[in-house]
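User: Run a structure prediction on this.
Assistant: Running it now.
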Amino acid sequence: IDTLIPSSENETLAISKYINLFKNNKIKIPVSSFDTVNLMTDKLKMFEYLNYSGVDVGKWKKIDNFSDAANALNFFGYPSKKVIIKPRFSSGSRGILIANHKKNSFTNLLGDRLCGEGSWEAIKEELKNSNRSLDNYFVMPFHEGKTFDVDCIAKEGNLVMAVSRLRVYENPLSPTNQGCIIGPNKTIYNYCVKLVKAFKIYGACDFDIVIRKDSRPQLLDSSCRLSGSVGASLNAGVNVVAELIKMLHGKKPKKIKLLKNVKVFPTPIFVKSL
């Protein structure tokens, strides 16, 4: 084995924990240190760390129960404003709840996992009926600005490559790519420079970044691996995976120049066997 590329948080955590084993066997891995990976998989610690490091990640409040949640919702302007309730540890939008007083009943936004929208009363009822708690959750404002998925390659805390993909989703919480517009974005790029430096990332990373009402970028989520939709960048002439492998093996990744407004939308193709 020359190169091993993880494709999930659990794989990344496992590899980073035994990173010296791979190095001793001369197996190239695009994985940061265990401390970095562990930090990026705990959303609450991640926000606390970045805030301490001087990176703008907005406001949030830690909660552990329904009473904490009610106080946090009030702090962020509910019921006049929509508010997000998020778990510290999750992926694929699992456990994300949108408190929206206009929704009298709870609506599950993803069929195979808890992820939905409703009034605070509807959310409480849904959680109690499914015997769930709000332990290890936090609350933050609901940002409705443009949201980007950003595929990055970094080396020793320095950003080598960043491909930003503006989400064009019918369901903003969809765990799979519903469509995107790829193109250069200086604001997103400069913010990624700060994130990569703060995290001291080596190898691959993936950021979800929203543009707030004040026109400033803010991190929503991150992972120390390639995103599941990294292949979308091929349509803009950038093979992120190939450039990552080149970097791992001591070759210099090529400088990219993204085309503007490259639209990528998955199309289901049905093949009828004859």
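The first helix runs from residue 9 to 17.
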